[in-house]
Structures are given as structure tokens and as C-alpha cells.
Amino acid sequence: MPGKHFQLEYGKKVRIESIDPNETGALHDREEAEPNIERLSERLEALQNILYAEKKQSVLFVIQGMDCSGKDGVVKRALGGLHPQGFQVSSFKAPTEEEAAHDFLWRAHKVVPAKGMIGAFIRSYYEDVLITRVHNWISDSEAKKRFKHINRFEKLLESSGVKIVKIFLHISKDFQLAKLRNRLTDPTKRWKFDKNDLVERESWDEYQKAYEDVFKQCSSASAPWYVVPANHRWYRDWAVLQIAVEALESMSLAYPESDPELDQLLDQL
Amino acid sequence: MPGKHFQLEYGKKVRIESIDPNETGALHDREEAEPNIERLSERLEALQNILYAEKKQSVLFVIQGMDCSGKDGVVKRALGGLHPQGFQVSSFKAPTEEEAAHDFLWRAHKVVPAKGMIGAFIRSYYEDVLITRVHNWISDSEAKKRFKHINRFEKLLESSGVKIVKIFLHISKDFQLAKLRNRLTDPTKRWKFDKNDLVERESWDEYQKAYEDVFKQCSSASAPWYVVPANHRWYRDWAVLQIAVEALESMSLAYPESDPELDQLLDQL
């Protein structure tokens, strides 16, 4: 199944509910997925090497999703094979005082991946049109303005060679509950539990609506949104790797032209 | 073989020449090393999870070595199993104009790993007492001053909970030549070749001397130098993992105290 399967048509209204978070495509279980995941992971590493050598373009994965959708996990399980020197992860939490004193794109702009680099945003500037809307911290007209700012910001990045890949990890509300329970009972995960997650959970439907608006207002052919079913972690990992590999393959990456002078050097060595 | 095997006695003069870059300890080949590498890697990931959860301490790997000693490779092969969200790699190249307009520790200070994080410096502020000395850009008395600045800087970091692990990847001059040849002939590696590496290679002995001075002047019980034989990459990876695991094990890491209120929450979920 190609990555395009998960890509939303841009500018169209999508109902998240209509997408099955339990989907596993043509794959039946983790065992069947493993060799595919391994193959894609190796391919992605090879492409990263060319991207890094070329130093003309970069890749930005924007990873969004409800609490427990597996945003941290996907960075480790699907993208963890990338060379750490060329891979930079940024987590966006509540803004600091300094961040809040700037426009909402300022802190994201600072950590956009440089040429040759791959970046992953765990949450992103999209939170500024998600949590803020769900809690009515901003008006609808302010949200509309922000959609435009985001679209122009992404155009700027694209014009500088940044390939933007926006991924929404799609889970069900029941699945979230099971994961929250698991966090409370597993001593190696309990530290991740945040009482506030229960508060946000109450606004589940409002979040889905806010996301649907984002998908409609902030998609383009060059920077589309992908909705990845994530109730099955192994399928999530396979799908994200598939999308990632296709994204890098579309960039016409090439090793830099070789300096013929170097051949003479080789003879002297 | 414990990581301590690679640790230099602090304050003592060491002759790098006396250490065999071909050493493989009790291991005979890559095949024998693999299961050990895997076991150590899993252990390191588990320790990283506690470090990240605890958020009270951090770890800084300072990775130094001659060109082709495998500084980039070790970050991928030995430390690549770390969760990318909690692992941050910084490469130090020739200073930018802004960096050069500050003291030599300024740019390093900015990227010191925050509490909960693991950082790796590929090259570091130690270059300011290595390449600079080899080319006589600084005097011996300036170098002595810098040693003191470095020692005080490392004390500051330690006082804030940073565990500093300094690793010198030790290769032979012949091995470097073979690797340089390989870079020139392998089309996926040719982009890494820098003609300047040949110039630096001519100062091999001066570099070894400058390193020996660093080891003598900038070691302490809490921030020692480790010399890792690196002609065999699999041994290098095993040794660095062994050192890393022991470093984290020495930090008395613990998950944060659990909030008993959460148990009541669980009943309500």
C-alpha cells in the first residue's frame, strides 16, 4: 500500500471518524510487518545519507495526535534508525515566557532543520490552532488568520528546500483510555502520566473538529496531511516509514558532483 | 572487560603510542561482539528512560579523535539505539563569525544537554587546545590558561548534574590512510573526503603530543578520559557502549517518586 493511501485530499473536508484507527491494510500482524519495517528503515537510512551529503534540501516531519497516540514512540520505532547526527527532534510544550513574547511561529522557525538535516516536531505550531481553539483561548477569526500565517510559513520553508510531511496519528478514544490505564500501572511509564491528559480527554470531540479544520485549511499538494491509523503500533510504524521513504524518494536526491582532481590525489596516496 | 580498562589515570603522563589501536580485549571478532553490543544497547536504552523520567541529571559524551577515527560512526553504531527525543548530537566545525566573537566555550555551553537529556559532542571545545596548538595559532601559555578554563567549565557542568564522559578514538596512521583511500573510491563516501585531511595528517605526531597534554591537564576522577582502540569498529562500539552503560549506572538514576493520588485516579478511570 503506497503512502498516498494515507494522504488527505487537500482543501476538502475530511471526517476523521470515517477513518478506522484499527486499520492494518494488507498486513495481518506485527510478525508480517517486521521485515517490511526493516527493509524500509534501511532504505530510509540510505536516502538520509544522500540528503546529508547533498546538503541542499531538508525534511521536516510534523507529528501530531491526541495524548497516547504514540508521537514519542513513532520517533523511536519508525525514525530511530536515522543517523542521530543528521536527525533532530524538537518537542513543543507550553510556551516559555520568552516564546510567548513572540509570534507563535518564532520558536518553531528557530529549530527548522538545516540543509542536509531531517527534523521531527513532536507537536508543533499546529497546537496554536488546536488546544487554543478547543479552550477558546483564541477566536475563530484569529484561527483563520493563523491558518494563513501557517500556510505562508510553510511556503517559505518549501522555497528553501524543506520537504514538509505532516502526520496525524489516529487512535480511538477507547484505545486512549487503555493506554492511560497502562501508564498508571506500569512503573516504567507512570512518570509520563499527566493528570491534565484527563481534562483534555473530555474535549475529545472538540479536538477532532479542530483537527478537521486544520486538515481542510492547511493542506497543499506539496505539504499534505497524512492520517495514520495508530491503534496498532506496528502498522503505525510501517505506515510512517512508507510515507517517509516516499517523501525522500520524491526529492531527486543526489550525491554531490565528484571533483575529478580527487582521482589524481588517490594516485598519490 | 570493564569500561575502567580504557580510563586514563588522571594527572599522569600517558603515551598514546603505548596503547594498541588493534586491541580487541577478550573478544575475537564482530560475530562474538554482536550479542554483547545488543545487550549493552538495550541496557543503555533502559537507563536512558530512567534518566529522562527523572529529569535531574544529564550525560555528555565528548568524542574526539583523528580524522577517520570513526567519531560519526560511533554515534550511529554505539549510541544510535538511544531514543532520539532524549539524545542530541552537536558537531563542532570551524567557528562561525559569531562563535569566534565569543570565548571558546560559548558555543559549547549553548548546547550542553539539559536535565534528562544525553548529548554527544562530535569534536568539542577540546579542539581549541588541539588544532590551535598543532598550528601554533595559540601559545603554550594560552593553552595552559585554556586547560584551566576547561577544567572550571566542566566543574560547573558537573555541579549541575552533568556526567561528562570523554572518549578518544584511537587509530593507527596506517589505518587512517586506508580509510582515506576508501573515502575516495566509495561513491557513497566520497563527499566526506576533505583535501584538508591530508594536510592535518602531516601533523600526526604533533596531534598525538597535543592529545597527550590534554589527557594530562584535563582529566579528573569525575570527568576522566577514555582511550578506545578503534581500528576494529566493532570493538570500538562495544567499548563505548560498555563505558556508557557504566557511566549511567554510576549515576544512581531513579524514576520519580510516584504520586499516591494517582492510584485513586486509576480506580475512577
Automatic annotation (TrEMBL), chains A, B:
Residues 30-57 form a coiled coil. PANTHER family: POLYPHOSPHATE:AMP PHOSPHOTRANSFERASE (PTHR34383:SF3), POLYPHOSPHATE:AMP PHOSPHOTRANSFERASE-RELATED (PTHR34383). Residues 29-252 form the Polyphosphate kinase-2-related domain. This is Polyphosphate kinase 2 family protein. The lineage of its organism: Bacteria, Bacillati, Bacillota, Bacilli, Bacillales. One of its GO terms (molecular function) is kinase activity. Keywords: Coiled coil, Kinase, Transferase. It comes from Paenibacillus alginolyticus. SUPFAM superfamilies: P-loop containing nucleoside triphosphate hydrolases (SSF52540). It holds the Pfam family PPK2. InterPro entries: P-loop_NTPase (IPR027417), Polyphosphate_phosphotransfera (IPR016898), PPK2-rel_1 (IPR022300), PPK2-related (IPR022488).
